[in-house]
Design a protein that fits this description.
Number of helices: 5
Structural class: mainly alpha
Distance between the termini: 22 Å
Largest sheet: none
Shape: flat
Helix content: over 70%
């Protein structure tokens, strides 16, 4: 690790630091989501699908592409964040 990374952290570490508050909010919802019945969870999923269908009507293909990319990046960053959380427990 070079001196710059030691001082400022890696790009991934800086990204994780930026999204940590949002991830913490998401994690705070975990017990609520885990408490849902299968029917309630399906209803939530149907609601999200409805929102996505509504977005398809309201946004241009270019905007939808950007939204999908942001969702994918968020999912990856969330997975990385969880991985680092698990690793820090060891």
């Amino acid at each position: 690790m070079n001196i710059i990374n030691k001082l400022f952290g890696t790009h991934s570490e800086r990204e994780l630091k930026l999204i940590a508050p949002t991830i913490d909010k998401i994690e705070a919802l975990r017990p609520t989501m885990q408490a849902l019945t299968d029917e309630e969870l399906k209803a939530q999923s149907d609601r999200v699908i409805g929102i996505l269908h509504d977005m398809e009507k309201r946004y241009s293909p270019e905007q939808l592409k950007e939204i999908k990319q942001l969702l994918a990046e968020t999912a990856v960053l969330y997975a990385i964040y969880n991985y680092h959380s698990i690793q820090s427990v060891k």
